[in-house]
Amino acid sequence: MKKIIKYVLYDIVRNKIVVAYTLFLLLLSVGLFNLGSSPEKGLLSLLNLVLLTVPLISIVFATTHFYNSYEFMELLVSQPIKRSKIFMSEYLGVTLSLSAALVIGMGIPVMLFAPGATGLYLVLTGVFITFIFVALAFLASVLTRDKAKGIGIALLLWFYFALIYDGIVLFILYSFADYPLEYATLTMTALNPVDLGRIMVLLNLDVSALMGYTGALYKSIFGSMWGIVSAFGVMLLWVTIPLITSRNIFQKRDL
Fold first, then answer.
1. Where are the domains of the chain?
2. Which among 171, 162, 156, 215 has a CA at the least distance from the CA of 193?
């Protein structure tokens, strides 16, 4: 399994897309911190862009890589290697390379310009988002052998979590404004890893006061160490469920 992961990592680095991704994040991070009047504003701007671009790049790159690796996986399947090991090696190779790019490209500027818990949460959120959307990309890839359809499903997933979901939540909150929806809002937040990551970082930027009673509720739940662990536990579920589902489909399907 280690040899397969090393080969996948080597193949990805040789492709130079991850290198370009690292440079993009590095330039973006340094630029936003230099443009912002304070480290907090730089973190806030970086958060908004990261939660939009990192899921998109992760899901598109992972889906494309999966389809481009079909011949390699077919070769490995013909060998006495378990399919689960092949699948997990591909997944870990992609996630580790993209996570390393994020830690280098975004983590280093964050630690230089805004060291502290908030910056650490931002980097951890970015890593979790990477793992989650690569898992979703692999799920989309195993659902169909058609590359165009697979990329289309992946883009729809990104579009839903990054853009459409917030609109649905706002519509629900507006339609049922006369009812107490604080705990319902909390549940809806947990159903979207992008929103969950955003809330985690925003609470550490001390902007919960601007979010009214719901912000106070978020602060009371996610402000403690137990709340933080629970939030990252939910994000871990977002990694595990699509990953196990896609792995099971991969084990049963014909390549």
1. 2-252
2. 162
